[in-house]
Amino acid sequence: MSIRKVVLGGLLAAVFAVALPAQSGRNVAVASGEAVALPQSGTNVTVASGQAVALPAQSGSNATVVSLAVDQGVPLRILLTEKVSFRENAPVYGNLIEPVYAFDREVIPSGARVEGVVTGFERAGSWRRISAMLGGDFTPQREPVIVFRTVVLSDGTRIPIETRALPGAEFFVEAGAGSRSPAPAGNSFAPGKRKSGKEMVRNWLWGMSPYHPQYLAAGAPIDAVLTAPLDFGVAELEAGELDDIGSGLPDGLAVFIRLVTPLNSKTAAVGTPVEAVTIRPIFSDDHHLVLPVGARVRGQVTQVERAKRRHRNGQMAFTFTSIEPPELWVCDMPGPLPIDGSLAGIEVGHDMRHLRLSSDGLARIVESKKRFIGPAWALFRAGRTINATADPFGTAVFGAYRGKFFKEVTGGSPGFGLPASVAGAMVPPVGIGFGFYSAARSIYSTFLKRGAEIDLPVNTELEIRLNRAGD
User: Fold this and answer.
1) φ and ψ at 240, to 5 degrees?
2) Taking the CB of the first residue and of the last residue of the chain, which one, N or C, has fewer CB atoms within 10 A?
3) Cα dist. 360→302, 319, 451, 456 in Å?
4) CA 309/CA 311 separation, integer angstroms
């Protein structure tokens, strides 16, 4: 607690100590920084938040008042319900796929409607634009800037919000499963629902076109990160409702948390602190509150290995060793509660789609064997260029698009793109040079290039199996 808060708390306590004799029978406890309108006589009040509150008159009651606030930085998990066109001021509609909690209760239910708007666009980097044009795609490379402004509840209540939109999680990786599952499904600003065969063919045809419409498909997951807190007032808890705070933690409980500290296998070291917060409140087996939402979970990195050359990918493992109430919560807990928190699952985006978790929680990147097809195909194409004859323009263009399709299927490098493919087919010596260069580049990327690092940004959601330390 900062010196400023201690001083403020002392001053407030002194003020209330002077005021109390004028209204007998009251016992008021105030945490630092609060302003409280005193209730009628006979009321015992404990204020446990940084909010200004006013309790109703309840003679003889012994209440604890808590603030129902959702902090800045909390992500709202959204799934788009309608296609969003890439145009400024285009409306954006979605539904919450996870409820939002404040202290011990749900304040926004799952399924609540969220409304936003496209406020502008961010241009992609120069290399991405050049690569797209080399691949025959002249569609402007840009990402929409989306702002969600309103949550609409089922009864019509409209809650104003301030947010910034980020790509949502695409997959859930379960420890020891050796595979991934949709979580919910989708990609960073990309389709999230399983497409029909007709839709896949239509998208493929548009993908082969030099220009195609841009949109976000219905079902795309988006995280709307709050840029300002949400205030849902206060709650009055009766005596005894908070007696189990910090005790009675159920063994083997699955707890969902989100990272506060980002983790990257390139920069992390053994012993690097890891901090996260709970997404939901934790209750005992008899449904008494053990820890409110936002409880701090702390741990450290236990194993890490940076990515290396020859396509050796990064690895990382971390565990959680303690849990405690939120920082602003004042209670009788002597200190953090020791736990043994093992990693049971993790939600990842498109960039980490190859991430896998071992049964002991070691995160590593396991790429598909399909990537070996690319170098084999590149060598086969390079060999064919040696005795190739010049093709007419139409045949060269058709062959270039056929090669582009195969590279998309196999995940191969686009090389110099369609212009080089057409030139190489029409001028055999040029084709020989491009062909062998493309083969060498594909071999380097597949076998010799530095591997991928594990990157878990802030707000990455994890599932941990929570046990008391030593059990």
Assistant:
1) 95, -15
2) C
3) 12, 10, 22, 18
4) 5
Residue 344 token pair: 């049971």
Distance, CA of 49 to CA of 329 (rounded, Å): 6
Radius of gyration of the chain (CA): 28
Task: Summarize pLDDT for 164-207 with one digit per residue, the tens.
Answer: 999 998 889 988 876 666 654 333 333 344 455 566 566 655 55
Whole-number pLDDT of residue 469:
60
Secondary structure (DSSP) of 97-158: SS-EEETTEEEE-TT-EEEEEEEEEEEPPHHHHHHHHHTT--S--EEEEEEEEEEE-TTS-E
Collect the ranges in the chain with pLDDT lower than 70: 1-62, 131-137, 178-211, 248, 328-334, 401-420, 468-471
Instruction: Answer for the pair 448, 332: CB distance below 8 angstroms, yes or no.
Output: no
Residues with Cβ within 8 Å of 442's Cβ and at least 6 positions away in sequence, in order, are 374, 375, 378, 412, 413, 415
**Residue reference for tokens 């940076």:** 306
What gap in Å lies between CA 185 and CA 179, rounded to an integer?
Answer: 14
Cβ neighbours of residue 359 closer than 8 Å, sequence gap 6 or more: 175, 176
**pLDDT digits over 46-68, tens only?**
444 433 333 443 444 567 888 89
